[in-house]
Amino acid sequence: MTTRLGLGLPQMRQYDIGKDVPDVARAAERMGYESLWVFERALFPEPATQGLYGVEGLPWPDTYRSVAEPLVTLALAAAVTERARLGTSVLVAPLHVPFQLAKSLASLDAASGGRVVAGFGTGWSHDEYAAASVRPFAERGAALDELIGVCRAVWGPDPVVYDGEVTKIASAVVGPKPARPIPILLAAGGSGRARCRLVDHADGWLPTGMGAETVARQWRELRELAAERGRTEPIRTVLRVNTRYSAKNYEGSDRRPFQGGVDQIVEDLAAHAEIGLDEILVDVQSTVRDAEELKDVAALVHEKARAAGV
Question: So where does this one cross the membrane (predicted)?
C-alpha cells in the first residue's frame, strides 16, 4: 500500500491568495494529492527578539513576513475541491479563543462534507503570544488541553456543557455540527507531557521530516508509550515535509533532508515512507517563485514519488 500524499497550499508573500489558493487546490486534487494543508504564522517580529523555533540566532525566513490566515485559506480550497481532505499543520492553539475555533472548524467540516483534519500545536513565538494568545506562554500546555476539550464538547451532541479556565458553557445548542467526528492530530515535541497528551487525548501525530532515522525513533517511542498507557486505538500519522527545492540537485555531503532537486526530494520521501507512516504532507511553497512553479514541482514530485513506490 502506498503512502498517502498531501500538498501544502500557497500562503506566503509571493502568492496572490485569492487567485492562487483555488488554482493550486484544484490542480493538486487533479494530480492525485489526497489532502491539502495549511500552517500558521501570525506575525513577523522586526527586529526579531527570538530566533526561529526559539533557537538563539536562527533568523526567521523572509517568506514569513506575510502568511495568509489558515482557515480562510482552507475555506478557499474547500470551495473548489470535492475529495481532498483539508488539514492544519499546525494551528497554534493558544492564539485562538477555543469556542470560536471549535465552531469555525465545525462549520468548515460541515460545508466541505466532512473533510477537515484539525492539527494543533503550542507554538514557540513569544511575540505571537504577546499579540494574540488567550493565555500566557507558560500556560500553553493547559491552553491546548482546554482547546481539545472545548472542541470535543462543541462537536458533540447538544446541549453542550463545558467548564474551563477560559471557556464557560452552561448549557447551549451549538451548530452546525461537523459532518463526522473531526480527527485531532498533535505536533507533540520531545517532552513527556506532550507525548502523553497525544496518546491520551488525540487521534494522531504530526511529526516533521528531520531525517528518516530520527522520525523512525520518535515513532517507535510513541508507540511504546501508547502500549504502556493502554491505548488500543491506532495513532494516525501525517508527516510534514518542508522542502527546499532547487532546480538542480544539491551537491555536497552536508545536504539536509528534502533539500535539492525533485529527484533528491523523492529519494528522501521514499526513505521516510519506509517508516510506515500513513501520510506525508509535502510543502514546496517557500522556495518556488510563484503558483505556476509550485504546480509544476508538485506534479513532478507526485509523479516520481508514485513511480518510486511512495
Answer: none
